[in-house]
Amino acid sequence: MSNIYGKNPVKEAIESTQPIVKIYIAKGKRSPFINEVLQSARQKGIPVREVEKNKLREMSGTENHQGIVAVMTEQSYGSFEDILKRAEEKKEPVLLAILDEIQDPHNLGAIIRSAEAFGFHGIVIPKDRSAGLTETVAKTSAGAVAHLPVVRVGNLARTIDDLKKDYGLWVTGADQDASSSLYENDLNRPLGIVIGSEGKGMRRLVKEKCDFLIKIPMSGKVNSLNASVAAGIVFCEARKQRK
């Protein structure tokens, strides 16, 4: 079991297909938002229980639970078939994020949130040296993890080869040493975008598998960005080119 907390993450989880075991709310006065969330929960047959705030603090590990905690089954990983189905339903060329050893769960959650917001069809992460779908990731993603397939693979470099061969994907990598700007490249195609790890960037073999590299133009004294911030900028441009 895993717990997520906060109004928006719990609301997103209720609206998704991810199974919720039970919802706990703080005893006392309810806000209109909480009442709306509870109505949706009851319509789906999700049990709701009122408890003292200290119980919610114990379940969430924080005072910032906003009076609501959902107990969920473990977030399950998706498949490439799930990603393709999502793209087909939207009648769009496949667009996915390939994350190379993103180890900070807050970064992973933020990247998933951005990917879902910009209409990506899925996420690919490696099994080793990468954050998994933890409670922290679910919370940081603001519930987006419940809407976006996340595929976990054993070998990222080999997976990139398979994606090119089996699904006709082009693969680009975000790299500040790239010769061309993000804005100078065609991202309106079946595409996988590689975001490298915090501090180290993409591993050499993964970078070599990319068809082309892109960089974010920088004009300040700081020449690098947090992985989740960089991902958000690249994802936004990819979506912009598809409109």
Briefly, what is this?
By secondary structure, this protein is α/β, with parallel strands linked by helices. Helix content is 37%, strand content 19%.
Describe the structure.
The chain is α/β, with parallel strands linked by helices. The chain has nine helices and ten strands. The radius of gyration is 19 Å and the shape is elongated. The strands form two sheets. A six-stranded parallel sheet has the order 7-6-5-9-8-10, with helices on both faces. A four-stranded mixed sheet has the order 1-4-2-3. The chain folds into two domains: 2-72, 60s Ribosomal Protein L30, Chain: A (2-Layer Sandwich); 80-240, SPOUT methyltransferase, trefoil knot domain (Alpha/beta knot, 3-Layer(aba) Sandwich), CATH 3.40.1280.10. α1 runs parallel beside α2 (32-43).
Q: Give the beta-strand count.
A: 10
Q: Overall 3D geometry?
A: elongated
Q: What structural class should be given to the helix and strand makeup?
A: alpha/beta
Broad CATH class of the largest domain: Alpha Beta
Number of domains: 2
Supply Rg: 19 Å
Mind describing the biggest β-sheet?
6 strands, parallel
Q: Numbering strands along the chain, what is their spatial order in the largest sheet? A: 7-6-5-9-8-10
The rounded distance between the terminal residues' Cα atoms is 40 Å
Question: How big a fraction of the residues is strand?
Answer: 15-25%
Helix content: 25-40%
Label the CATH architecture of the largest domain: 3-Layer(aba) Sandwich
At the third CATH level, what is the topology name of the largest domain? Answer: Alpha/beta knot
**Which H/E pattern describes the elements?**
EHEHEHEHEHEHEHEEHEH
By CATH, the superfamily of the largest domain comes out as SPOUT methyltransferase, trefoil knot domain
Q: What is the average per-residue confidence, as pLDDT, rounded to a whole number?
A: 89
Question: How many distinct helices?
Answer: 9
Low-confidence stretches: none
